[in-house]
Prior knowledge:
Mean pLDDT: 78
Number of helices: 5
Structural class: mainly alpha
Radius of gyration: 19 Å
Distance between the termini: 60 Å
Largest sheet: none
Order of helices and strands: HHHHH
Strand content: under 5%
Number of strands: 0
Low-confidence stretches: 5-15
Amino acid sequence: MEVDDDDFGGEDYDYSDDDDLSWKVRKAATRCLAAIIKTHPGQLSRIFDTAGPFLVKRFTEREENVKVDIYATFIELLHQAAIVVESEHAGAGVTTIVDKIRGEVPNAVKALSKDLGGKSEKTRMGAFQAVC
């Protein structure tokens, strides 16, 4: 049996941005990650291993509301890292976290620089906060 485009509504079946609700899932996942970062500072090194590079990659998010939450989560990750660095006395865990952050700086700055010159004020503010 031959399948025709008309069987599936033809070209009228394309998804539009209005139909795409996956941004809600991405936004919720980002907020859950921020909550984990806040409540588990002892696991920060392990969280940064998986979440740090992932968040930097997601700086290219197309949905503005999600992008702002991604920036806020990255800022929270850096804030918790600063608290850990200040509270511990130059232990191995501190240098590991600092080295991991340094490793992500070039990628983060490259991704953030695009949004610093963008049209959306909300996105520019989020990017600026992440840079500072």
